[in-house]
Write a structure and sequence with these properties.
Length: 168
């Protein structure tokens, strides 16, 4: 099974147009497409930022969840979380919300092996013991994602990426 087709054409010209319309102070920065997966396209914006745009209607609402919850989750974790620094809204040229995030250097989680220290840190995160206390209850209360066992916090895939970046 391959990656689903994008339901809207997303390229550097679209990103530039969205920035000119909604964040003109960032529109002069260089834009480079980095990746496009099942759900989102990712563009590097200058040296410090990234733009994340949904590719399909079925997952477009996840961006608004990330915009709401990632800043709150980030405040409770010791690892870097790509919480949006700015947000974008739907326009005539693009139908969904989108985000501007900090650029976290590193590689995608599926392109490298984890070492034992990273595995331990990720395990602490999964248990909710993110800052040495019992953060599980606090994080579970914030999670927009259902947890079948009500034990800890389900991990959005965007956090899996940031977990790999924190040790580099």
């Amino acid at each position: 099974m391959g990656t689903p087709a994008a339901e809207h054409h997303i390229d550097e010209a679209l990103v530039r147009s969205l920035l000119l319309d909604q964040h003109p102070d960032l529109a002069q920065l260089p834009i480079q497409q980095v990746d496009a997966g099942w759900d989102n396209a990712m563009f590097r914006l200058g040296d410090r930022l990234a733009v994340r745009l949904p590719r399909r209607a079925a997952v477009a609402s996840l961006i608004t969840h990330e915009q709401t919850w990632l800043p709150q989750i980030a405040s409770r974790l010791t690892l870097p979380v790509p919480a949006p620094v700015r947000t974008g809204r739907p326009t005539k040229g693009y139908p969904w919300h989108w985000s501007i995030l900090p650029w976290l250097p590193g590689v995608c989680a599926d392109h490298r092996d984890f070492d034992s220290t990273e595995g331990s840190r990720f395990g602490l995160f999964r248990r909710g013991d993110a800052k040495g206390g019992n953060a599980k209850r606090d994080l579970s209360d914030l999670s927009p994602f259902p947890s079948p066992s009500n034990q800890g916090v389900p991990v959005p895939s965007i956090l899996l990426l940031s977990a790999t970046h924190s040790s580099q």
